[in-house]
Amino acid sequence: MGVTRLVVANWKMNGGTEDLDQIDAMAARLFGRDLTGTVAVAPPFTLLGAARPRKGGRLKLAAQDCHQEADGAHTGDISAPMLAALGVDYVIVGHSERRAGHRETDAAVRAKAEAALAAGLTPIVCIGEPEVARDASEAEAFVLDQLDASRPRTSDDFAIAYEPIWAIGTGRAAMPSDIRAMHRAIRGVLGGPQPILYGGSVKPDNAAEIAQVKDVDGALVGGASLRAADFLPIVEAFLAPQAAVTEV
Ligand code: PGA
User: Fold this and answer.
1) Which of 19, 37, 126, 165 could form a disulfide with 239 if both were Cys (CB 3.0 to 4.6 A apart)?
2) pTM for this one?
3) Rounded to an integer, what distance in angstroms lies between the CA atom of residue 214 and that of residue 230?
């Protein structure tokens, strides 16, 4: 079963036109390299149009959200067909910052993922437990419930990003043994070739260790994705063909 590795740069609500040269630097460094897998950059909506001509080869374009409807009276929202028309390849749905800040439910996340698929985009569906669930030894049950209720049912062409909420933006990545256990559980439910990414404080100095964990097929990177100098070593750690897989 071949799983295509995927590393995603999630710029969140950061970046202006002056940062497009970071994408140029990523494209230049990725060109012609012996890597296995795909890299996607998710700048804010405002930069997608300018980023489009910079994609190519293994460098793809991602958006950070989409609406579940194709069009209509939804002021301020962006639909999946609009993203597809802009040349976007992937869309992140259900990030914990949107679940918290915009009260997105599992049902809404599923609807967005299915809307993305209908528009020809590949959704990256985010799941992850809050610290209180981890402390109560309920992390796996929480995440598997979220997976069951959020993942699209219309196609197997999606990716999952496991992002423990307490690890996002904190500098405190999950332990490899905990990542291993959760990814194994997620793989057991999916049973298919969907890449399972880890996200939460992935940095150049911990990327190699996380990349070697079995059933980790890539990363969703926030803070360390804004600068090519930080992001490229992470890409190399996850996509270098010699990356070995270890049981931890
Ligand atoms: P972080 O964010 O790498 O800054 O922890 C990850 C994410 O939220 O996708």
Assistant:
1) 37
2) 0.96
3) 24
